[in-house]
Amino acid sequence: MPLEWITLLVTFGTPNNFRTEFIQFEVADFESLYHTIFGRPALAKFMAVPHYPYLLLKMLGPNGVLSFRGDLKRSYDYDIEAVQIVVKTQQVYEA
Description:
Elements: E1 4-14, E2 17-27, H1 40-46, E3 49-51, E4 56-61, E5 64-69, H2 72-94
Antiparallel strand pairs: 1-2, 3-4, 4-5
């Protein structure tokens, strides 16, 4: 269950080509390596198109397409850390 909801102004892009929208976030009480996760409502609001295999997110800006690339190595490292957190948490609850 979320602790609360918060609405923040989110901007993607550069000063000459950007998109800004208000996005509602759930505040949760759990350890995570991600600061936020954009769900379908946020993607729909920005009319963004994710391409997960290439870690690519595209959306239309006022002066053309905005493209954002992820880092595969960093994503892999975060996933490994997330698994380690789960293992440690399970060990604490089993003890």
